[in-house]
Design a protein that fits this description.
It is built from 8 helices and 12 strands. The radius of gyration is 19 Å and the shape is globular. The N terminus is likely disordered.
Amino acid sequence: MTAPARGAPVRGPLLLHHPVTIAPGAPVLEVAGVVRSSAVDGPGNRYVLFLQGCNFDCTACHNPTTIGRCDACGACVPVCPHGALSLPEPGVVAYDPAPCDRCKLCVTVCPIDADPAIRVVPVDVLVEEIRPLARFLSGVTVTGGEPTIQAGALAALFAALKADAGLGHLTTLVDTNGTLPPARWKPLLPVLDGAMVDLKAASSDLHQRLTGHDNVAVKETIRFLSSAGKLAEVRLLVVEGVTDTDEELAAWAEFVAAVDPGIPVRLMAFRHTGTRERARIWPETSPEAVDRVQERLTALGLTAVGSIGVSRR
């Protein structure tokens, strides 16, 4: 999953955490950031929403401040040097973006890696934020965090886009860790054009070490979305000496080929940017290492292997 730092986050006037009062019954999304124009989050020029909250704790996460969902503990309030955070009442953190300079001191003290400077945004507001850019866009990609944690509101957003005469041409994609059960994918499928699923490791033991969870649900999701015609691609983060061993790549290719050898596969190079200190025991992945993985997976029978975001200076 790619980092919100590629574009300045869009923020609303005031955010109240837990509870958030919008309108009764209005679907809302917890938005960590927005990139208005991206060429690496699916085909064409895409509007990218980064949602807050993830059920994995990946060592290599490039967006660690999108993992936790603020529980209004208040630890961040006294460390803010600009007075952007306050506790107007117990169980509520208020955020005012006007004095905030995004120094991120609040995040460094958060015990659950949550960013208090997010927006809780009604779906209809997001639709109107996308509208002025629609003629320049190919589609909308929702990532995170893990976007399917907010699956109900996500389906409402995609449905609103599909139903709108001025926005219906936009394709709708999610970038997901694949843990949503098939029964909960079903309401999304009619308004979803495709899912980009991260299979971080074929070995369940390695997947557990990298993410804190096994990959049983992820593999089930890949099979389910492929059978439903909604699997846009499977992604692999190449970490040299970790996810690119001969044994791991053979198992990875064997699983994907058994689903469909023609599934688009996208390789990404591990970078230190945005990661936590514990990830930096690994070197950044070279373009040559990505090329070797691409050649190996192709030789193992996958027919649509490519890479994204690999710098070849």
